[in-house]
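ingest -> validate -> predict -> emit
validate: passed (alphabet ok, no gaps, 477 aa)
predict: started
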Amino acid sequence: MKPSLLESPLSVVNVGVDAFNLSVTTHGGSVAQVDWQPPGNADPVLAWKLAQLVGDRQDPDATGSRIDRANALAVERVLAARPTLVDVALHARDVWPDMDRTLLHAGAPVAWPDMCGPMHGAMIGAVLYERWADSMAEAERMLAAGEIRFAQCHDYSAVGPMTGIISPSMPVLVIRNLTHGNTAYTNINEGIGKILRFGANSPEVLVRLKWFEDVLAPAMKKAVLLSGGIDLKAIQSQALLMGDEVHSRNVAATSLFFMQFAVPLSQCELPPGVAHEILKFIADTSQFFLNLSMASAKATMDAAHGIEYSSTVTAIARNGVTTAIRVSGLGRRWFEAPSGRPQGLYFPGFSEADANPDLGDSAITETAGLGGFSFAASPALTLLAGGSIAASMEYSRLMYEITDGRNPANSLPALDFAPAPVGIDVRKVIDTGIQPVVTTGIAHREAGVGQIGAGIVRVPMACFVKALEALAEQYPA
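emit:
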């Protein structure tokens, strides 16, 4: 005779809240916990909109919904992209002649009174660098009075780390997607210490920026043109195999760039000592490749933007106050929410109380499958971020749940060389409740102090809620 249910060992499958598990295990039972939460951020109205977007099928003979097909096209464009450094523009105004007195900044639009401390400091520094003012007080007065125009880097096909400031006289790196023909731009990485992107504006900061303009950029331009272009996608792919995730850690990527750049630079006719000075600067600046990685991702993701029906996220940007996303099928609109403070490891003497909310355009790398999505590739970074190698691998595994594609060009050794996840789908974020993870530096909330740590931050769920509602409105089933 078979034992009855009450006589059998108790085995329970628990879905969702794990508070019920203890009463089972204390009485000798076993529990299989299934992590689950209601779709649609536990909002029934949002869940219904999500269901309509997931089940949207206008053509009964077609494979998948309109959105599925649009997202597949977006991923196809991402995988086919060939971002390449092709030139260096000696001044941003050479690229955008209508800049006049305009300063580009990271993230979505933000007014002067609402800007964070580092953004204020960087804006003041840019005004002094341009010689629009003779003193910090005069520069601040002009900025507060609206005499200087602000615009977003992304609206100029550009990206910049942290504050992301680009002014008319600054040189910009020119990255072209050779597959699709679009171009992206970025400023030059300043290194560490007192730097404009963290809000520093002292004389040594301005002297370095002037050296970029007068010495570094003209020499880089000669070397890049002589090289015939430097393949950034190949560098990123190789760097992932060497311990970078090519957002917060760029040691390998900078070294690989150095190898490709040094030879053509050595062939250029330059004043005595200039080549050595430039190579030493790059060698001393482990994050030099960061800006190139960002612009590479920008050139890649812009090719996937503007696809009708697509729910693919093509940009994540932070201005130090809000985090915002753009979605391929929703034009140039930003979907914003207050930025969180990164969680991670703080340098000695600093704590979360000193941190500025998340800042910078650099999360564009996550949309292209790098950074937090390739976290498993960078064991050294996991230690800096205060986590564990096991956690870094889990972050990458989770990102497969909210993406539509896999990039064979970017393989993750720790995950048996699995292709990195790519193509964040707004619908999947809302369905799973999994927020994209971003690896990031932590900026001090006051201008000019600089980086005070490193860690991770999650893109706010509210960004995706707003985007899904916009998708439902624009593309009704």
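The CA atoms of residues 67 and 362 lie 27 Å apart.
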